[in-house]
Amino acid sequence: MRLLFVHQNFPGQFKHLAPALAARGHEVVAMTMKANQPAQWNGVRLVPYAVGRASTPGIHPWLIDVETKVIRGEAAYRAALQMREQGYTPDAIVAHPGWGESLFIKDVWPQARLGIYAEFHYHPEGADLGFDPEFPGTDDASAPRMRVKNINNLLHFEVADAGLSPTRWQADAFPGPFRDRITVVHDGIDTAALAPNPGVKLALDGHELTRADEVVTFVNRNLEPYRGYHVFMRSLPTLLRERPNARVLIVGGTATGYGRAPPQGTTWRDVFLAEVRPRLREEDLKRIHFLGSLPYDKFVALLQLSTVHVYLTYPFVLSWSLLEAMSIGCAVVASDTAPVREAIRDGDNGVLVPFFEPERLAGEIARLLADPAARGRLGAKARSDVIERYDLLTRCLPAQVAWVEGLAR
User: Fold this and answer.
1) Per the database record, which ranges form the Glycosyl transferase family domain (predicted)?
2) Are 26 and 93 in contact (CB under 8 A)?
């Protein structure tokens, strides 16, 4: 079968799926906005394309997001027309619609079946928007802005034949009747590679950390409120007083990925570090280590070193890092928010705490740091659950492949 992937940052969520389909003998092509790519990647032929214009200056602010997606959709549309003129016609198209690239793809190939990665549908309440009263992000125009932002999803629903979501909560956020066309399959976790390593070591400030050290880890792509960075930082003065030997290793960049930007000239990392600094003794401050963004192998080693791993998030897209930490066997303390509750059951394979209670968070982390038996039990159950429910090779990838092949048929 001829299978076409559309993703502006390919492979993205399809990094395992597209090569697996190519290995099964399908002709797999991917359209991407990445420049300077090779012609082939893991059996997948890459077709680059580029946008031809920027957004219109002075456009109505509610329409900026929509226009950006239309511009990207037009670019992919024109690249697809060229592919059609060269004789290419796919049997099925798998697209991440989040940036608009696949808006007009069925106008080029109306007979091809289209499956979309149904990652997130916006709501003015009940999800991320308005969840955090400190950063409400709401005003009298919130509801109409969210409705306009969902135009991209709604236009895709008219032409898409099926959807794929990584969690049930994300799937259920989409409206009916399209919700009934969504299959829930996670992207998958390589549990063989993401496994415990008792001999792991990490050099830090002239000291070599091992599993014998007390290490608290916190990982985000970017350090920002959406992923609970402010709550975590507010827990540290209490935690570090209670655990005088603990070291806190924080991974994440300083850009803004989601939500409101910090005050001009600052970063969220520095804003909340400055907030808690008066409550930190100098010796405690020295035990907080900001590691920035890490290469993936260093990130894995960090999780393997972790004594307690902390994951916090608004009700939003679930981070891969949570399941990766569970696969490694980390004892996890996480926020009691959706969709975290799909992965963690409190007291069974991790610990859930209310998102807005930093003192409670500090107490649960400290309790686990003092209890090796509890950590071992939670970590072992976390790993077994990820192997059973989210393993890439035995669970998720076969289901994804079946979904695509069924779509094409």
Assistant:
1) 24-193, 213-384
2) no
At position 201, the amino acid (one-letter code) is K
**pLDDT on residue 141:** 67
Q: Look-up: residue for tokens 């511009």? A: 71
Of 376, 95, 78, 353, the closest CA to residue 234 belongs to: 353
Bridge partners for 237 per DSSP: none
Domains, the chain: 2-188+392-408 (3.40.50.2000), 202-390 (3.40.50.2000)
Give dist(CA 124, CA 103) in Å, integer.
Answer: 23
Cβ-based burial of 117 (10 A; exposed 0-12, middle 13-18, buried ≥19): buried
Q: Are 165 and 136 in contact (CB under 8 A)?
A: no
Pair type for strands 351-353 and 332-335: parallel
Give residue-wise pLDDT tens across range 380-396.
999 999 999 999 999 99
Confidence bin at 260 (pLDDT 50/70/90): confident
What share of the chain has pLDDT > 90, as a percent? 87
pLDDT at 138 over 80: no
